[in-house]
Design brief:
By secondary structure, this protein is of the alpha+beta class. It folds into four domains: about 5-210, no CATH class; about 230-420, Serine Threonine Protein Phosphatase 5, Tetratricopeptide repeat, CATH 1.25.40; about 425-530, Immunoglobulin-like (Sandwich), CATH 2.60.40; about 550-670, Immunoglobulin-like, CATH 2.60.40. Helix content is about 50%, strand content about 20%. It contains 19 helices and 21 strands. Strands 5, 6, 7, 11 and 12 form a five-stranded antiparallel sheet that branches. Strands 16-15-19-20-21 form a five-stranded antiparallel sheet. A four-stranded antiparallel sheet has the order 13-14-18-17, with no helix packed on it. Helix 5 packs antiparallel against helix 6 (about 165-230).
Length: about 675
């Protein structure tokens, strides 16, 4: 193809395109504009019909409304405006909204806003189309004018030459007409904006009224959460009832009331409370058949009333529903997302924590832990502990590590001594933290001083930073799950960066409040572990255990009563290059107290809690205690040695007296 032919074809195509635009502008009059405007408005109205119908149906409903459902609906409508990529997407999202039990007065104001928005979007759409079309025509005209500076091409009555008066007149008239159309569109948009402002202004007081109702409801529900947490169940029931008076049918308040009634007098399911509990839970499950907390509470209630098969069935069904319900907390419409201020106080953090336990199946709302408690009450200890493992397997699978703290609270408070003692060797697992040089990271290890291994062990640090209230922690998972933590070895789990954004402030390792604690999740159990220094601190600040029947003091007496001359063995270990050591062999049952030992002799202190010259471990079925380099002090022939055992459950003193042969032998035990 020759260059002149290519140029000719390009000019022909350009000329034809420009002619089409010119004829479009030249032949389309006011009647064409009106027809197009009418078609566009009809299209927008058709697209808006389903959204309007959904809102109209909800506005027409009568009866009590749900304050929380109302707030969710309003937030959903607001997000639809912000997030929709087009008018069509916005209207589609509105039409799919759930407006059941939403306050009609709020929806009426939102419907008014919707009506204005629909027309407003239509006006903007029309204005944008006109501007884009004129811009395209102008670009083609200018480009072609440059190409045809020396060429005069005529197609009928219109010349494409820039100097043709007819062409110049056509363009001038079209520019004037389009400018007038743009002015009209801009004025229309301004009118819609003013109307929208009026509609928004009218919606504010209505929404504020509902927000005030929600604030009053939250105050009563928060009170009920805190009372449930502190086991003030009568008060919790009253607070939940007050909340239901403010918002009949509120699901959270209903579940809190049911929980308080079920937990009251847990040993006997009162016949007086039966009808109310049944009514509350049946109402929730009628509206939400898969509501996991309601299934859980009904299961506990049925079990306690003698229907163990029905109770077990409800609890096991709840287990299958919690993973589904967990997705609700990721919902950006969740009203609790507006209550970040709660985290600024310990009590507020407790409220949001208890809410999360309800949504995610932790603490009181764990079906596995509740079933474990019921089975423990029935004497089925092995089944109960298996259920505890099931629960923490779910927590591990869902990765909700921060809830482990609430779960442990339930286990230790409501499952009692039997839970705390089913892996007594936990006292001999020490948390070790070593800061990395020039980094915010710490290396985390477990020093296992016991002769039992842990299998499938995961480790979660519970870290409190400055400005966090007491009892509030940030959870950090450490490294990977270890296949085994061998006995009598130190196992490194890996490094973890202790960095946290707390309410907009970056916190680092320097802001960590000691001690750092940790939770171990293993096949053998789930329990707290601490540094050996913190264990000593806990032991020393613990008040003496009361000497009551069945109390901790009595328990200490039972354990130390096993100490006798035939159960305590001593051995002096000779060292060639240093002073001799002293080893004691004690009954393994002392593991139930988890003691740390101290010996003051010859002006020196050998203190296990301080990491100075003393160490105990479980080995060969015995508790073995070793004091390093005490030989010189022993050579001074003190009349007796007093080995102090410090425990959070109670202290005791092991008294060793010097024999005629110059050795030492067990003499007695002294209790406070």
């Amino acid at each position: 193809m020759t260059p002149s032919l290519r140029i000719g074809m390009a000019l022909g195509f350009a000329a034809a395109s420009l002619l089409g635009l010119a004829l479009y502008f030249g032949t389309r009059g006011d009647e064409g504009d009106a027809s197009e405007r009418l078609a566009r408005e009809e299209r927008v109205q058709v697209e808006a019909a389903p959204a309007r119908a959904a809102l109209d149906a909800a506005v027409a409903e009568s009866g009590p409304y749900d304050v929380e459902a109302t707030l969710r609906a309003v937030r959903e409508l607001d997000l639809a405006v912000k997030q929709a990529g087009s008018v069509h997407e916005f209207l589609e999202r509105v039409s799919r909204g759930d407006y059941r039990r939403v306050a009609p007065k709020v929806l009426a104001t939102r419907k008014r806003i919707l009506d204005v928005l629909v027309r407003y979007y239509g006006a903007l759409d029309r204005q944008r189309d006109e501007e884009e079309l004129w811009s395209a025509f102008a670009r083609w005209s200018d480009e072609l004018a440059r190409v045809l500076q020396t060429t005069n091409v005529e197609l009928g009555p219109v010349s494409l030459s820039p100097s043709d008066p007819a062409r110049q007149k056509l363009l001038a008239e079209e520019r004037a007409r389009r400018e007038e159309a743009r002015k009209e569109s801009a004025a229309e948009v301004r009118r819609f904006e003013e109307e929208l402002l009026f509609a928004l202004d009218a919606a504010v007081p209505v929404f504020r009224e509902v927000e005030d109702e929600w604030a009053r409801l939250c105050a009563q529900r928060d009170r009920a959460y805190l009372q449930v947490s502190s086991r003030a169940l009568d008060d919790a029931a009253q607070s939940a009832r007050t909340a239901l008076e403010l918002a009949p049918g509120d699901r959270e308040a209903t579940l809190l009331l049911a929980l308080a009634l079920v937990e009251q007098d847990a040993d006997v399911a009162s016949l007086e409370r039966g009808p109310e509990v049944q009514r509350l839970l049946d109402g929730v499950l009628h509206d939400a058949p898969d509501c996991a907390p309601a299934l859980l509470l009904r299961g506990v209630w049925r079990w306690r009333r003698g229907d163990r098969a029905g109770g077990r069935s409800d609890l096991e069904l709840a287990m299958t529903r919690y993973p589904l319900q967990a997705q609700a907390l990721k919902d950006e419409l969740d009203p609790y997302s507006k209550r970040e201020y709660l985290r600024t106080t310990r009590q507020g953090g407790r409220v949001t924590g208890m809410y999360r336990t309800m949504m995610l199946g932790a603490n009181h709302f764990s079906p596995e832990l509740q079933l474990a408690r019921l089975e423990l009450e029935s004497g089925e200890t092995s089944n109960a502990l298996a259920r505890v493992k099931d629960h923490f397997a779910r927590r591990r699978a869902q990765g909700q590590w921060d809830l482990v703290l609430y779960d442990l609270e339930f286990c230790e408070d409501l499952l009692g001594e039997r839970y705390r003692e089913y892996f007594p060797e936990k006292s001999y697992l020490d948390l070790v933290l070593e800061q990395r040089a020039f980094r915010e990271a710490v290396e985390v290890s477990i020093d296992n001083r016991s002769d039992r291994a842990l299998r499938n062990a995961a480790l979660v640090l519970a870290v409190r930073f400055t400005d966090m209230v007491e009892g509030e922690y940030e959870a950090f998972t450490v490294g990977k799950t270890m296949a085994a933590v061998p006995p009598l070895e130190k196992t490194a789990f890996g490094d973890v960066e202790l960095v946290h954004d707390a309410l907009g402030t970056r916190k680092t390792y320097e802001d960590v409040i000691r001690p750092v604690r940790a939770v171990v999740i293993a096949d053998e159990g789930v329990f707290w572990i601490d540094s050996i220094e913190y264990k000593g601190e806990l032991a020393r600040r613990s008040a003496p255990a009361p000497q009551t029947q069945g109390g901790l003091g009595e328990r200490v007496r039972e354990v130390v009563s096993l100490l006798a001359p035939d159960s305590v063995a001593l051995r002096r270990v000779e060292n060639l290059l240093s002073s001799d050591d002293l080893e004691l062999e004690l009954p393994r049952e002392l593991v139930l107290l988890g003691p740390l030992f101290r010996l003051d002799i010859g002006g020196e202190r050998f203190d296990e809690a301080a990491g100075k010259g003393a160490r105990s471990r479980l080995e060969g079925g015995k508790l073995r205690l070793r004091f390093d380099s005490v030989g010189k002090a022993l050579d001074g022939a003190p009349k007796e040695l007093r080995v102090v055992a410090e425990s959070a459950l109670g202290d005791f003193v092991l008294v060793l007296e010097r024999t005629e042969s110059g050795n030492y032998a067990f003499a007695r035990v002294e209790l406070p």
